[in-house]
Amino acid sequence: MDNRKYEALITISETGSITNAAERMGYTQSGITQMINSLEKELGVKLLTRTNKGAFLTPHGTELLPLMREEFRWERTIRQECDRMTGKETGTVTVGCLSSISTAWMPEILEIFAKRFPNIRINMIEQEAPSLERMLMNGRIDLAMMEIENKKPYLSKVLLRDEIVAVLPDSHELASLKKISPEKLVQYPFISYATGDTSSIHGWPEYRVPQAKLNVMYTCKNDLTAIQMVKHNLGVSLAGKLMLGSYEAETVNIPLDPPMYRLLGVATRPGEKPLPATQSFIDTVVAVISKD
Predict the structure, then answer these.
(1) What is the pLDDT of residue 194?
(2) What is the C-alpha to C-alpha distance for residues 21 and 14, in angstroms, rounded to an integer?
(3) Torsion angle of alpha carbons 223, 225, 226, 232, nearest 10°?
(4) Do 122 and 53 share a structural domain?
(5) Are 99 and 222 in contact, with CB atoms under 8 Å apart?
């Protein structure tokens, strides 16, 4: 079995260039180019368009990509099952996760996993939840560690009920309150992150502010950037306690009234048994987080 040509095309589609694909796969650029040329010759269709800005799938390549992903996945499954049978677990797991999870959970998880499975490689991709869901469902990542919502197409296991708190600079006039309602936040400049949805609290639909819109003055993608902006008196924000972590001392963090939470956990694609390496990683995640 040798589906490296499929892997090359898949990797180019994810990284946007032959150079990046070669670096990720450990080949030379000419080696990747030869694989793609050979694959196009075998199939009789053009799969890739090369420009000075990168490499992009043709319509034929886009149509065939899901089938190649599936074929490549089955080869990975067979190889990993054979390795497991012989007592040598190998493979690569691509994990998508929120930046807050990446910071708070992943170092310990990766340390323990590396000791147990030294021959399994981990690729990490940090994105916000909507992007992670799309990447999971189209097969770009093997699992997602993110906010878990009901009535979603993925399979999930909840690991933490993360409380949401208001984040204020220590000099703010509301900093002495024991609790704060979301409605009060509309009176002040709000720092949004991830989706920038002004009709809800930084894009989480379940935390909508009744009959009001937040006064979003700043939008950024990184949650830790938002916290630093709060620290410098640019506005107020909301955050999960997990994300705040060691940054709690830098701001005043007040529980909401009524309390609000987000569910964090692991998501996988429905109708698929996770690959052996992926399942080993999931088992490690559950074991590490459950003991805390």
Answers:
(1) 58
(2) 8
(3) 150
(4) no
(5) yes
